[in-house]
């Protein structure tokens, strides 16, 4: 029966077509390969069979599976034979090595695509059984032979199919794919993306990695149609009679087949639903994660083995990603869908299309993040060319390119909660790319200044932008852009010149400081202003640690600017202390940072901040309905204590004591009073400086009766949490 099956298989392999189903053919190949001790002739026959031409993904997948399963079955056969063999029979592993080498030798002279799939199937089979065979990545023997064959086949396929197809002779005689499937090179890369991750990195360096990266990027461009898949979005959007947005508007335009053979043919558009359906069902789209993973793995190897080529290659990759992102951004900005705040505003019959759009957009974002992360994490450890020309890419230019791409995708990023310090959610890889780009850029003050001024120019040119206190009504699309710009600026404040901060940055923040309805913009703007105070404090600290007696010009200008904005921002924070604006934690942190920055410039400014807060507390206390607001201001006063200089501390602490004494005796008020006492205790214990702590401790002892019956958590000498009543000076001092 085995001989008959072998004969049947050979008869079908010699024909250009077969009546056998692919599953049956795959089973025959697996069985006969596994049960043939010297499979080289059969392997050669399979590789040269016309049955697998023209190429199709189904045929090649069946061939891949046949070789992969043959490895499993052959090992089982050898293990079964070993159970009944004598003691002088060769072991399973040597015979398995011999069988694998024989299979791979049969690939010699075969067509590159078929050899790639066959060798890849053997490699995946060995990877499956690596624990049982000891065939780890990087080992010699049969594993090395299969890895070498995969690498050579990939190089051959790129050489044959990677060039231009201008010749009619080439088009006629090069193998084509069945039924208009993706072209041969894209199909080869789909399979290579499964195999190459299992190849030892040193062997991968033998590949023309720059060419591999180029072709992988071409496949990604083809996957997303160069970003033109949303070109019909604007014309597809109409508002129906119910006031909902419909995305199914009919258009009389020519259809364009997908996938395309080259990105240059992607200029024509098809109706939105048809384009999305064809895009998401494409094998390139379903495999884009593996293509991206292979590209991300190839970039570090290229930068390590051929740095000169690597720098230019990664710059080109980012430029090509930028083109896709820019096309997506432009099409989205012109559509009515960009202003939709909630999914409920979309017509029910269009929600499936909207879901498909977001699926593609998020997939492209993941692709961009994975590639950008690989590039940035590599270039920071790679030395640029020793004799660079002005046109050569640098780490700074690559970080700028990455930030530009993220800016185009800001409306997609906002769906993950944003990536700014004020945002919640998001995924760590995205934030890592964002902050790594900013870290790299901040090492170049000149590039940073240019970038921030460019952001400011873009912001001021946005329709409706204004430096007035009344913020314009931006749509969700523009808000996402503005929030990302403010997030970039916040991180770069420490390296910006004071002139740029005063003339370009601060005017951008003012329109958003009073508008809590646009929450992300509101919080981002406050974060940028607080970053200004923190940067000023750092400059002053650096000056005090230096040997210079006089302030530098930059530090002097910074002090002058801070002195001008402290009164404005103090009033701004107090006006934003009401319900529905800054929450208690945000207000406490912000006012403490403001007071600290003011004190760094001048104790008089710190006194202004303290007095403004006390005046606001007095004004709000007259309103009996503002209990929560009043309590929020009381906590803010306590949070500001560590930021005050010693001369101002007595009056501030006395004001705190008066506030605590004024709380009524009902249960709710008692809880708030207890919270104030705990906050004072924590401020004195952990936050007030050594110089001021001595006075604060005496103040605590002098007001010990005020804190009677209030349990305060502390740690004893052994480190265990305990609770005790603050009834004596010794107890208070012990905790401090």
From TrEMBL:
Domain of life: Eukaryota
InterPro entries the record matches: PEX8-like
Protein name per Swiss-Prot or TrEMBL: Peroxisomal membrane protein PEX17
Disordered: region residues: 716-736
Composition bias type Basic and acidic residues, residue spans: 716-728
């Amino acid at each position: 029966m085995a001989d008959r099956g072998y004969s049947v298989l050979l008869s079908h392999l010699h024909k250009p077509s077969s009546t056998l189903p692919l599953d049956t053919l795959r089973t025959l190949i697996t069985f006969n390969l596994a049960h043939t001790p010297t499979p080289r002739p059969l392997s050669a026959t399979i590789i040269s069979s016309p049955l697998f031409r023209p190429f199709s993904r189904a045929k090649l997948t069946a061939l891949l599976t046949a070789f992969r399963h043959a490895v499993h079955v052959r090992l089982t056969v050898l293990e079964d034979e070993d159970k009944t063999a004598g003691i002088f029979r060769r072991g399973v592993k040597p015979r398995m090595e011999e069988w694998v080498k024989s299979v791979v030798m049969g690939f010699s002279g075969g067509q590159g695509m078929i050899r790639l799939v066959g060798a890849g199937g053997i490699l995946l089979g060995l990877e499956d059984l690596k624990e049982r065979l000891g065939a780890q990545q990087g080992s010699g023997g049969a594993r090395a032979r299969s890895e070498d064959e995969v690498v050579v086949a990939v190089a051959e396929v790129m050489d044959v199919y990677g060039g231009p197809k201008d010749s009619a002779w080439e088009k006629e005689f090069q193998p084509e794919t069945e039924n208009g499937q993706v072209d041969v090179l894209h199909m080869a890369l789909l399979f290579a993306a499964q195999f190459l991750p299992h190849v030892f990195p040193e062997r991968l360096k033998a590949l023309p990695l720059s060419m591999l990266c180029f072709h992988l990027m071409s496949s990604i461009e083809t996957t997303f149609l160069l970003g033109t898949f949303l070109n019909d979005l604007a014309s597809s959007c109409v508002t129906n009679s119910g006031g909902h947005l419909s995305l199914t508007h009919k258009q009389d335009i020519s259809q364009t087949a997908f996938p395309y053979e080259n990105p240059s043919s992607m200029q024509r558009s098809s109706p939105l639903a048809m384009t999305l359906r064809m895009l998401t069902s494409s094998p390139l789209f379903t495999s884009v994660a593996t293509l991206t993973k292979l590209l991300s793995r190839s970039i570090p190897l290229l930068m390590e083995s051929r740095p000169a080529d690597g720098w230019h290659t990664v710059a080109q990759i980012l430029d090509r990603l930028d083109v896709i992102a820019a096309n997506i951004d432009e099409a989205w900005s012109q559509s009515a869908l960009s202003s939709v705040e909630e999914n409920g505003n979309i017509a029910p019959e269009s929600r499936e299309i909207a879901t498909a759009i977001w699926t593609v957009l998020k997939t492209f974002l993941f692709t961009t993040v994975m590639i950008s992360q690989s590039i940035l994490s590599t270039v920071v450890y790679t030395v640029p060319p020793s004799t660079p020309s002005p046109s050569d890419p640098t780490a700074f230019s690559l970080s700028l390119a990455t930030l530009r791409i993220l800016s185009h995708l800001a409306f997609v990023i906002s769906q993950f909660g944003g990536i700014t310090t004020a945002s919640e959610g998001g995924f760590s890889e995205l934030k890592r790319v964002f902050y790594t780009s900013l870290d790299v850029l901040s090492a170049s003050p000149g590039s940073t200044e240019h970038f921030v001024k460019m952001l400011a120019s873009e912001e001021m040119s946005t329709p409706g932008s204004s430096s007035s206190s009344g913020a314009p009504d931006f749509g969700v699309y523009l808000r996402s852009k503005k929030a990302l710009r403010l997030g970039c600026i916040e991180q770069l404040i420490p390296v910006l010149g004071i002139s740029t901060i005063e003339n370009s940055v601060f005017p951008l923040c003012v329109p958003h400081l009073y508008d809590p309805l646009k929450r992300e913009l509101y919080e981002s703007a406050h974060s940028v202003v607080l970053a200004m105070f923190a940067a000023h404090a750092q400059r002053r600290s650096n000056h005090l640690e230096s040997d210079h007696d006089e302030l530098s010009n930059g530090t002097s200008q910074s002090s002058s600017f801070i002195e001008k904005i402290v009164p404005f921002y103090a009033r701004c924070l107090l006006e934003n202390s009401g319900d529905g604006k800054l929450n208690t934690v945000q207000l406490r942190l912000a006012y403490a940072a403001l007071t600290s920055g003011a004190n760094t410039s001048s104790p008089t400014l710190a006194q202004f901040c303290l007095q403004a807060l006390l005046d606001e507390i007095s004004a709000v206390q007259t309103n009996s309905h503002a209990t929560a607001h009043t309590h929020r201001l009381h906590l803010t006063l306590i949070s500001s204590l560590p930021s005050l200089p010693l001369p101002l501390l007595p009056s501030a602490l006395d004001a705190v004591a008066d506030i605590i004494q004024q709380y009524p005796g009902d249960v709710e008020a008692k809880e708030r009073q207890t919270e104030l006492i705990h906050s004072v205790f924590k401020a004195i214990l952990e936050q007030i400086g050594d110089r001021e702590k001595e006075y604060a401790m005496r103040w605590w002892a002098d007001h010990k009766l005020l804190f009677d019956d209030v349990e305060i958590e502390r740690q004893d000498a052994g480190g265990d949490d305990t609770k005790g009543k603050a009834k004596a000076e010794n107890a208070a001092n012990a905790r401090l």
